[in-house]
Amino acid sequence: MFAVELLAELIRRGVRDAVVCPGSRSQALALAAAAAESAGAVRLHVRLDERSAAFFALGIARETGLPAPVIVTSGTAVANLGPAVLEAHEARIPLLLLTADRPTELRGIRSNQTTRQAELFGPVARLVRDVPAPDYGPDGDLARDSGRDPGALARMALAAALGASGGAPAGPVQLNLAFREPLSGTAGFDGMIARGFAEAAAEGEQARATRAASHGVGAGARIGTGADADAGADADRADADADRADADGAAHVPDRAYVHRGDALAVAIAGAGAGPEAEAFAHAAGIPLLAEVVSGARFGREAIAAYASLIDDPAVGGLVEQAIVFGHPTLTRQVPALLRRDDVDVVVVDPHAGPGVDHYDPSRSARVVREARVADDHDAAALRRWLGAWVVADRALQRARSTAHEPDLDAARATGHQERNAFARAEVAALREPVTRAMLVERVWRATWPHDRLVLAASRLVRVLDGLAPARRALVHANRGLAGIDGTVATALGIADAAQSDPDPVRAAGTVRLVIGDLALLHDAGSLLLPAAESRPRIQVVVGNDGGGTIFDGLEVAASASPAAFERVMRTPQHVELSALAAAYGWEYRRAENRGELDRLLTEPVAGPVLVEVVLADPAPAPAPAPAPAPAD
Question: What angle do CA 196, 197, 200 make, to 5 degrees?
C-alpha cells in the first residue's frame, strides 16, 4: 500500500503522467501506476529503455511544467537515468525519479543487482531521499516513522522538483525506495484502491486548474490543493533547501530587482528559458532584443534575428554599453564574448538563488538580480535611433540569408510567349532546387503555426536557424541545458504526447516537428519504439541527413588536423538506410530531395508518426573504398 499512497498523493497534487520501465524490484510502484491508469487517474507510459523513459518524462515536463514520475528497478536501470538528470538540472526542468532498491540488509554484501544508487545524483539533485523499506504495525497499518510517510515524501519531492522563485530552480529529485519481499500484494483491495485514485484525480484536476489560473499553462510553478497544501509545500521546500545548504554551504543571493532607465546603448539578450518576459522588457525599454531561436522570446518589433553577426559589427554591436540577460544563451560565441567586454555593464536576471544555484555569467562579474523592469519615467523613444540601427541592419542580413523563393510576378503577368516560358522554367527550377540546411530550417520555421510545437535538436541545424529565423510567435523546445544529442527523439515524443492530450482543444490541435541531424537521430533511435497500447502522436521527425557530424567542420581543428583522422574520429560518416529504420519501428517514411518535395511534406496533414528524411545538398563524402587485398604469394 506504500506505493499506492505515494502515487495517489502525487496525483492529488496535480501529477497526471507516469512513466514505467518494467522490473522486478519496482513491481509495487508499476502495478500501482497501472491501477491508477485503470481508474482514469493518470496517463501511463511504458518504455523498455530507462534512458529513453527519463527523456520522455523530461519532454512531458517541458510541455506541462509538471514532472512525470519515472519508475525503474534497481542497478543499472538507475544509472541510465543519468543523462536526463543532468539535462533537467542544467535546464531547470522538473524530473521525479522513483527508483526501487534492495532493503538495508541486502546492501553492502554484493547482493545481485545492488549498488549505491542513492548516491548517484546527489551533486545535481534538488532532493534525494533514501527511504527504508515499508513496515507494518501489529494492526496492519503502514508505519510512518523514519521518513517513510508516503504522503509527506510525495509533497516534499514535488515541491523540490518544481522549485520556487527566490529559491532553488526546478530540477531532478530522487526518491530511492527500498522494498522487501514479497514485493507486492494488494489482492482484495482493488475496489478501495480504485476509489482512492479516482478521488485523488478529482483533486489533481482542481490543483492543475488553480495552478494554470495563477501561473499560466506550462509555467512550471508550484501547485497545491489549497492554502494548507501550499503552506505544507513551502515547509517541504524549506526542508529540501536546508539539506542542500548543509551540503553546499551558503550561496550568493541576487539583488532583488533591476530598474532600467536612461539612455545607455543597451541590448536585451534572451537565451533558452527566457520566455515572453524578455520580449516585454525589450519592448518597454525600446532596445534591441537579441533572442535565440530557442528562447521563447523571438517575436515583436525589437527582435533581431542576425544578432550574432551584428555583435561582431563595430558600427553596431561594438557600440553596446549595457546588456540585460534573460535565460541561458548557448548558441553563439558572440554573446559570451560581448558579456566579457570591459566596456559593457552586464545585468543577469535570474529569479533563483541558494546553495548550488549557478547563474549565467561569462565574466564572473555581472550584477545578478531576481527581476528586471523598466522605470515608469523611462523614455523608450530616446533610443529610437539605436534600435533602428539594429533593425535596419538585421533586415538587410535577413534578406541576404533567406532561401524563400520569390516568383517574378512581372514575368508571370507578361503577355509575350518567351517571357511566360522563361517564368515557367524558373518556377520549375525553383521546385527542383536541392535542399540546403538554410532552406530546410527556414521552411520548417515558416510552416510552424502558433498551435504547433517545434523541437530543435543540438545539431548544426539549430545554429543555422538561429541566424535567419524571422521574428514570430512559436512554441519552441530544445534540450539546451547541456546541449547534448542524447534523448532528443524521446524528448520530442514526450512533448507531443503531453501537448496533444491537453484538455484545451486549441493547444492539443497542433503538430510536433522535430528538426534533427542524422547522428542525433541514430544516437536515440531506440526511442522510436512506440508501445502498441498507447496513442500514436502526430509528429514529424525531420532528419537533415548530411551523412555525418558536419557540425565539427566549424572547429579550428578542422583546418589543421589530418583530413583522414578528422573524418574518422570527428565527422564519423554514416550511410544508414533511414527507410529501413522507420519500417522497423512502424513509422511512416517520407523523403525529400528538393524544395518542391519539402514544401509538400510540410504542408500536408500529419496523422501519426512520420520520419522525414531530407537529403541535404552538401552531405559528408562517402567513405573511401577499402584497399584491395594483397595478392597471395
Answer: 90
Residue 617's alpha-carbon distances to 139, 431, 436, 572, in angstroms, are 73, 14, 5, 18
Cell of 218: 506550462
Length of the chain: 633
**d(C-alpha 75, C-alpha 102), whole Å:** 10
Report yes or no: 498 and 59 within 8 Å, Cβ to Cβ: yes
DSSP 8-state symbol, 503: S
CA-CA distance, 37 to 20, in Å (whole number)?
A: 12
Q: Which of 10, 6, 183, 34 has its CA nearest to residue 533?
A: 34
- What strands, in cross-sheet order, belong to the sheet with 266-270? 255-260, 367-374, 345-349, 322-326, 266-270, 289-291
The answer to whether 323 and 367 are in contact (CB under 8 A) is no
126: DSSP letter = S
Residue 282, pLDDT above cutoff 80 = yes
pLDDT of residue 187: 63
Q: By C-alpha distance, which of 310, 329, 308 is closest to 319?
A: 310
Name which of 246, 231, 292, 291 is nearest 267 in CA terms: 291
d(CA 55, CA 554): 29
Using a 10 angstrom Cβ sphere, with 0-12 exposed, 13-18 middle and 19 or more buried, the burial of residue 324 is buried
110: helix, coil or strand?
A: coil
Number of H helices, E strands in the chain: 23, 18
The residue among 127, 175, 157, 172 whose CA lies nearest residue 232 is: 157
| pLDDT tens string 90-148 | 999 999 999 999 988 888 888 888 889 999 998 999 999 999 988 887 877 887 886 88
- Helix, coil or strand: residue 404: coil
Is a pLDDT exceeding 60 seen at residue 61?
A: yes
**Rounded to 5 degrees, what are φ and ψ at 350?**
-145, 115
Per the structure block, which three cell numbers stand in for 277?
518576459
SS3 of residue 443 by DSSP? helix
For residue 141, count CB atoms less than 10 angstroms from its CB and return exposed for 0-12, middle for 13-18, buried for 19 or more.
Answer: exposed
Cβ 275 vs Cβ 217: under 8 Å? no
CB atoms within 10 A of CB 376: 8
Question: Which of 375, 380, 398, 222 has its CA nearest to residue 305?
Answer: 398
Cα–Cα distances in Å, from 52 out to 328, 367, 576?
25, 39, 21
Strand partners, 349: 326, 369
Region for residue 147 given its phi and psi (left: phi exceeds 0; alpha: psi -120 to 50; beta: otherwise): left
Question: Angle between the 190-215 and 27-38 helix axes, to the nearest 10 degrees?
Answer: 80
Q: For residue 60, give the nearest of 628, 499, 610 by alpha carbon.
A: 499
Q: For the whole model, what pTM was predicted?
A: 0.89
